[in-house]
Amino acid sequence: MGSEITVDALDRRQLWGKQLDKAAFGLTFAFFLSAFVSKAAMNSLGALMLLVGLVSIVVNRDKVLSKHPFVMLFLIPLGVGTVAAIFSEIGGLPAVGEFLNRLKFFFLPLVLASVVKDEKRLWWLCGAVFFSGVVASFIGLSEPFQRNYGHFTGMHEIGRNADMLMIALLGLLVCLGAGSFRKKLERWQVGVVACVAGLFFWGMMMSGIRGAWVGFAVGLGCYSVFFNRKFLIIIGVLVVVACSIGPTGRVIDEVKSIGDTTSNASNLARLQLWKTGVDFSKGHLLFGSGSDRGKVRAQFKEFYKAQPEVYQKKYHWSIQYPGHFHNSYIQLFVEGGLLFFGAFIACGTLLMIRLVRALSVIPIEFKAYTQAAIVAASGFLATQFFHSELYSYGGALLMLFLSAGLLPLGWDEKKDGHDQVV
After folding, report:
1. What residues form the membrane-spanning segments (predicted)?
2. Tens digits of residue pLDDT in 393-405
3. What is the DSSP string of 195-258?
4. How far is CA 17 from CA 23, 49, 82, 108, 145, in A?
5. Contacts 24+ apart (CB under 8 A), 340-343
């Protein structure tokens, strides 16, 4: 009698486990399907996805961290930052809540490690991202104003949309350049992927966002030098195409302005913001200012007013954007403090090392995903020296690509116990 009850309870647990796994994957799919379309949907679906994903891990007794130890490299900075937030300038539980909300997408790899059990599911999630980007791009194209150079925003802010198009584009190009990946597709499918890549490239260039261009150049250069020298020819073609987009000579002028630190107002403003951000951080170096945007803005204004008149005149641009430093790394350093930032940089470095080492052991049929992770991350992280998207909605795509590069190492060769229903 007792054994029957035990078996029945086990059967119910397995049944609930399967349903929770499917629900968690469905929410994850919906989350990425809304990536280019709606911040509100990403927020609500993200919260549900995390909740259901954690319950699924517990019910299924999923040993996520043992199968995919790289997940700890995302969780450790979150843990250190949580402790630091308690002692930050804002302090207490409110500061912890603001910090975790700021870095909420850093929990994504934990859920992805649980729900992405094979290549099929990975394809569904990546397909959702690309489809979302196509939909948002066509909606942008339908608006005459967005068809003007420098105004293409899709359905997000212009800088965010450009960064997201850039990282998605790098992932697509790496996969197109990998023969092992192309073999998995029919010819017409390769054509569709190429057309999507072309659309994303056009959208990124039409945005006029130079930071995204820099990230794209870094990522594509990384791929061409380390993985596929033939892509040096593709770079030449893309340069010619890029120069033909928009008003004559406009792209060339924008590229030339990237290194202008004497007359370009945007560049000068960023340099001033970076300098004042570092100066501002010295008042709360170890534990940071906290992540409440309104309070950080107020703190910065007080800091600025306390500076000598000479300092204020020299860095006058900084008060135009109080508390917003247009650099993800300085922003995280200021808000999280040295303790958190040190853990963040250390774990990020270890993650990239793990990706590079994975290239020598990952099965050949999955190697394109690891290459795409390295290339996309290189481009996106380079962009974040000029933007503040690392911990925002564009960062969610980075979490997907980084996870995709390492998840195959933990996939079972045999079919997993769960039904692979999507």
Report:
1. 43-59, 71-93, 99-116, 123-142, 162-181, 188-205, 211-227, 232-252, 337-356, 368-387, 393-411
2. 999 999 999 999 9
3. HHHHHHHHHHHHHT-HHHHHHHHHHHHHHHHHT-TTHHHHHHHHHHHHHTSSSTTHHHHHHHHT
4. 10, 15, 30, 20, 49
5. 340/77, 340/80, 340/81, 340/84, 340/288, 343/76, 343/77, 343/80, 343/81
